Protein 1
Amino acid sequence: MAGMSSKRLQKELVKIQGTLPPGIALVSAENLREWQMDLSIPDNPIYPPTEKYRLRFLFSPSYPIEAPEVVFLASSNPERKIPIHPHIYTNGIICLDLLDTQGWSPVHNVESISISIQSMLAGNTKAERPPGDAEFVRSNRQRPRDINFLYHDPSV
Amino acid sequence: MKVTFTAYHAVAEWKWDLPEDSDDTCGICRVQFEGTCAKCKYPGDDCPIVIGDCTHCFHMHCIGDWLLSEQSQGKCPMCRQPFKERVAQAPVEARAARHTPEEAAQTPART
């Protein structure tokens, strides 16, 4: 299945380098294993429109049969924070159904995932971390996709 | 005037017979149905299309890989209903030629 991810990612890259929705930008795609995207969130006072949030996508050779690993990255230069959200842990791990093995579908792609995460932030009304954030960040050694998240509150 | 052909070059075009409102690309590999999945070299019979009961279409090899993966839970990637391959049907004219209308109505679809 080695050829699968590279052919599909090359197609996605061509499209992404053409057009992307407002507030979503490609930062780097130097290879077909790791890409980074920047998001900005319009019209939500929790996330100032000048701030950008960096997503890291990691693809396995069996993408898109297997979901990519998608997390927020923090950095100081340029300054990127982990956005505050009841489903985003301070280590950048995102609890979102379409990213885990139960909710993933191979029709999703980098653009559609970015849009989903952007709208998850745009619609957020609670400047809070998930319950148990400190404990999870201290103890988690699992890869994001292996974590069995409890979807505490599907309305968020 | 008499015209003599010394040579001719025939060109043919083909398309899959897919449901009318179907996409023209496979949602899994994002290649046109008339092209091949990521693994195949030659389009057409070597890389056929599967139509689901839900009318969603995929390259057979693409949907096969997905359904073999545990996370698919046997569901269509587009609509998440259980993916069932639709029984291929001959065009209406061809069926009518073989059955009288009553017979055709009574004959259950082959499974």
Protein 2
Amino acid sequence: MEMDKVIFGDNQFFAVNHLSDEKSRAQAIQFKDDSAIIRVLDQAREVGINTFMCTTHDRIASVCDYMRANPEKYRDFKIYPCMPYAHKYANAVTDLGIVGAIKQYVPGNFFSAITKGGAAFLTKDFIGLMELFIDAEMKMFKGIKIPVIFIQNVLVDMILGLKMYEVFKEYDSYIRKKYNSEPGYITMNMPALLDALNSVGIENPIICCSINKIGFRMSGGKEIYEKYLAEKAFRPIAMQVLAAGALRPKEAIEYLGNFPKIESVLFGASSKSHIQETKELIEHYL
Amino acid sequence: MIRAGIIGLGKMGLSHAAIVSPHPSVELVAVCDTSSLILDAFKKFSKVKVYSDYIKMIDSERLDSVVVATPTKFHYKMVRYALEKGIHTFCEKPFSLTTAEGENLVELANQKKLINQVGYHNHFIGTFRELKRLLKAGVIGDLVHFTGEAYGPVVTKEKGGTWRSDPGEGGGCLFDYASHVINLIQEIIGRPVKASGSQLKRIYSRDVEDAVYSILTLESGLSGILSVNWSDETYRKMATSLTILGKKGKIICDATEIKIFLKDGDAKENLPKGWTIKYITDFAIPVNFYLRGEEYSAQIDYFVDCILKNKPAEINSFKQALDTDKVIELLIADSKK
């Protein structure tokens, strides 16, 4: 499966701005209506971008409803979902604890099955629990093309840090089997993640990670990232290429041109001229 | 290799486990929690040993260091036990429920010459460090006023329940959110010695406060405002900021940016007259492993470094965390007036 070179992101829609909390709140106001999100998505489509990578935020469900209602318009359009929308769960865990949060978000009566079944049941079915979570998160995309499904970096890096690599293997096979999609991984620790995935037999994975000239959010340092980009087998999607805005678009994307392995670039923008400019730069340098 | 254990595998404990484990100088040997769900997950997917009793873990594992990330009411007995066994201890914030307990732990840690640190992670965010440096350099002159704020969407519905909802257990916005801001004010501007007009407001919680408002007076006599609310859903996640007004200018600082306004400019700091905005990209502390923010790894790196070099922590020591607990006590007493 080939990925589009240019992938449109969703941070700008959901008040995510790594450089300014204040700007992020301004964005929350700008995109308070779903129609404002759809308008910008359509502008991206008009300049020829057909892949939208987005978190499983409640508001994406409304965007999906709109896409299903206008199938002709979105015939060539693909979504790369990224799950879960972590802050929803993180705030719930702060409030309710881990077990409380599971109770709140796992569909159906799975949790009562756990408490009834007791310890023997508990030790066996983490994978079942994971599959239920995935299905719940993917529900909103029914009928929409989702060729790659990502786990968000908070979760990827948590599993990576805890060295629970088998979980990646289970995730990988479930995504392929149930959704017939490619599993993808977002991370702030690319070299360590690639080693971990390889260690459980996952070869040539799709990894979305920060790649930028100033080494921002490239854990372990820029040098080891550059080495892996030059030498290792994986399918990189570059994100945070502007280092949260610290770099000018031209110099930022010119830098990516040093690494022919990079298959796609993920970026977000709120205006048509920015979208067009960035897309042209990516196509020129990659 | 430093042998490490984690007590308490809630959100912070899991996050610490995931950060401690990849550290090149540390071996995470054991974890402890009372939830069989969490322990079974570790049993199934990791090689770390699991315990449901921290005393057993400490007695069996010859640990050099431990992270205590349990609810605040358990900190005292757990930290005390670890210190008595000669284990370097990192404790989550807030430190203790009563200052008497806190003082006891500070004394014990110092007497045993053990590295002791508390998880006020904002001090490992580059922008707040820069703020501290600029204030020390006097760029905004004599201070006139400060505002310390934190807002976020933790409790946004009517409810009761959970350990966090018992005021006697440190379950409200004061211990959880406001402690961060108080600690920042204390370490960056100065130690609060008086709280007045304090209000602990319930919004949605049945038993604990969801918002904290107070006027704090510092040792220096400077006063300012504390305004914290964890029931504000206009924020996507916790947002903490300090605004400091001086005779020569003003600085507004949060985890992502630092905005400096100077009446006349400062040649030594290369800051022009008017506004200068600097971003975290210039100040982020480089880390080898990233989870949720550089600051979480940087504070563990610092803890490990202090152990390896056998030098007492200057940032976030038990003593500093105890000072914060004392301000919390002042604030509670004032709110009851």
